[in-house]
Amino acid sequence: MNRRQFLASVSATAVLPLPSFAGVTPLKLKAETVSQQILPEGEGTTAMLGFNGSMPGPEIRLRRGARASIEVKNAMQEGTAVHWHGIRLENRMDGVPVLTQDLIDP
Asked: Residue 94: is its pLDDT beyond 90?
């Protein structure tokens, strides 16, 4: 068996290790304007920014050390970012617009 035949046989049977979140359907967050009644009844609703139709948005729970794939859609008229609370992550993914992360365009 020569080198070319060996490599062909290995590549045909090799299984590449995939990250634990590979193949997992990404969680979906939709950044959008929402209205909620936060003032006393009769005072009208308050417009604010939220995710998936609510403010502050859905709670995402994962086991410590677990990875997630999260797809963010920006349904607003201007760029936005996501600031993740309660998790440790790389600074470049911390969601501070323009400083650590590019804006997510509409």
From this structure: no
